[in-house]
Amino acid sequence: MLFRKKKEKKPSTIAMMDSKINEDYVEEKVTKIKDEDVEIVMNNEEAISEKLSNASPLRKYAELGKIMFAMLKDVKKGNYPNVPWFTIASIAVALLYVFNPFDLVPDFIPGVGYIDDLAVLSISMGWIETDLHKYLDWRLAETEKA
């Protein structure tokens, strides 16, 4: 047989205590994002960036956070059009989730407090990676024009 049947994709799941974060959970949150939620993210940029930089498990996402904020700003200003709403909403969900200290696993619990934040960030990054690369390519082209 030359062609194989595709395996059924199982949602990635990170189990923590009695709660689970999976793609369905994050996607449900993304579909509920409104413009006001994106504004909350933008208004709390400094606090979110500080949390990403200072929490050692989240530190690897600090640079990605800067890119996501830059992308949101360029979209808001109209400099970078044609971004799917799903991408904007995914960024907002990921950053709002990181910003919230009382999420599924509260951040103040030593050792496991950031596992759920990492899960949401990882799932969101998987969905929007292509759009982030396109944005970075666009920024590079804009920089070369100047």
From TrEMBL:
Keywords: Membrane, Transmembrane, Transmembrane helix. GO terms for cellular component: endomembrane system. The keyword Nucleus does not apply. Residues 88-122 form the DUF1232 domain. It is a multi-pass membrane protein. The chain crosses the membrane at residues 83-102. It is found in: Endomembrane system. This is DUF1232 domain-containing protein. It comes from Aequorivita soesokkakensis.
